[in-house]
Amino acid sequence: MKTSGVIRRIDDLGSIILPKEVCAMYGLENEVKTRFIDGSIAADGSILDGTGFKVTHEATGVYIVKFDTPFYFSPPTIQTLVVDNPFFEPYGYKAEVVGTVTTRQFKFFTYEIKDHDLIMRDIPLEYFYVWGYKKPNE
Known about the structure:
5-stranded antiparallel sheet, about 140 residues, mainly beta, disordered N terminus, 6-stranded antiparallel sheet
């Protein structure tokens, strides 16, 4: 679907304003102010790319991403978690969000499926993408 509106970036925190046409497609108010965070995380939990978040590596294959600025009235949507998987499905490396996503953080596991076993592994998260709403007056 082609829209005539323009997505406008409005600050360095990743805030954008969605045009009316896009908001209408998703049943949102006109020109909702949203924010996105994306990045890449090394197997040891260090940030390879991206800003607006910190990472805690709790245990093998267990990570918590904390947002520097919380999202507003609802938890963000975790749109993408991508790991490099050199194996054929259903085997290989995986990343899954676990527990409850809050306005301040989310937790994810990385693991390997091998010979019908699930093995926790420290695996780089090649890319993740999160989006949600900002306060109306921001």
